[in-house]
Design brief:
The complex is a heterodimer of chains A (192) and B (351). With 192 residues, chain A is mostly helical. Chain A is built from nine helices and no strands. In chain B, strand 4 and strand 5 form a beta hairpin. In chain B, helix 2 packs across helix 8, helix 8 crosses helix 11 and helix 11 runs antiparallel to helix 12. Chain B is globular, with a radius of gyration of 21 Å.
Amino acid sequence: MTSDPDDAELIARSLDGDEDAFVEVVRRHEAAVGAYLARRAGRELAEDLLGEVWVAALASRATYDRSFPDAGPWLFGVAHNTLRRHWRSRPAEEPVADVTGMASGWDPWAAVDSRVHAESVLRHALALLKPQEREILTLVAWEDLTVADAGRVLGMPPGTARRCLHQARMALRNAPGVVALLTDQNMMKEAN
Amino acid sequence: MVDEMDLLTGMKDAEPVRPRAFEDARAVLAAAIAVEGVPETKTAPRRRARWGMGRVAGLSAAALGAAAAVVALVVTSTPAPGRGAAPGASASQAQAASSPLVTLAALITASSGPLPGNASLIIRTQTEGGIPPQVSYNLYTDAGAFYVGGDKYSLKQAVARGENMADGITAREVKAALYAAAGNLATARVQMTDASPNALGLGLPLAAREQIWAKAMAADAKLFKEKGIKVPPLPTGKALRAAVDNLVWNNSVDALSAGGGNPRVRAGVLRLLSTITGVIVTRSTTGGQATLTITAGPEVFGGQGEQVLTINARTGMPIKSVQPAFGKVPSSADTYQVRRVTLNDVEAGRF
């Protein structure tokens, strides 16, 4: 009985000329990477950029560290860099990308809705964080990565990633609006 | 106890990427993989292409484009649904870096301000063989509508009556060109290739591609037999690239024909044309204005035929497209006058 090859093995096969191997890696991770892009850039842009992510990953696969059997964090890293390149290359007249605008379907006029209000406060708070702090927070909270894997995405050693996450959590917890939000949420929870 | 991570987790939902987008992205990847396996040409590439060229006569839509590059059975100009696959991306980008088409595309993008009007009026004069010139007034609105008339009055009437003939025609080609204006060229080639249906199955596993191809060829088996043509195999490697080049050319020309009034469409089309192996670009003068002559030759059209597209060297506006005669196919030429207008002005006869 043979088990499926891990991502590292498939990438090795791809480098040896197996054209289907890298496609299989992509198939395994496309939903997660697509969701990563959609959360940060909205669905339309995510769909436009996804192909670029795969091409960039293909081009750089020779540098993949095959001691990691799971290529997911590496692909998140490629997606992260693709997004950064995209935002840097946008025409100046377009609004600078930030996380306050990335919620698909978010209705800013529905401020009476407490959930939307919470999102608004949080997105504003996220926008105030340093980029790496924001990224590591969202990688852990949204992509369900471990801190170490989130560090891999950003090219940080695990210890640095842990410190970065800690700082990010503190900054977010103490951000304007978030303190009140947490207090409200905990009061409601206790009341229930 | 709710903490900040709980709050964040509660806002992770986003509109999911659609299945088609995953397929498109894999097609881009497949194109890049295919290009990896193709040795790059170091010699100056001879480039040819022809405007609206090379739809294979008589074949079903599904088999058309792919077969176009494989079989030498070509018809002329009129844009019809063509197909292709899409290799050629990264290598093409390397070639494109020094292309005059890319330079012009950049200039067009840099110099274009807000777009006037809300539609492109394209007055097309077509000549073919000994037939008297045919003039048509074609109005493509930015919203995707298409109105046509034989003269100003009939175009005005068509608009007034709401005789929108678009039916989705060229919309995908124009969208792909808009993306190509600033997007990744590998992605753009796939999008432009797939703007019209084809039997190449880009991005699918080989077995699925072979199945699609076999089905398309089977549908045309009778025609192949009548013409004494051997049923072509699923194109791979250089043949695949040639098939894709054919479709990129044809569909790009369709996009230029429909959206030439929009500088972003022109820029995107020029960038796409720069990726086609076998296209030659030369400086020229047409009616006293500086022009670029873009020649696409037989390799773009399955081994026969040629198409020459002339554009304004400063604006990229299409001026004319010529297909020399070959075999039993007579020569044909289209000339274009392109300008931006508003739908209201056309309806009022002010154009």
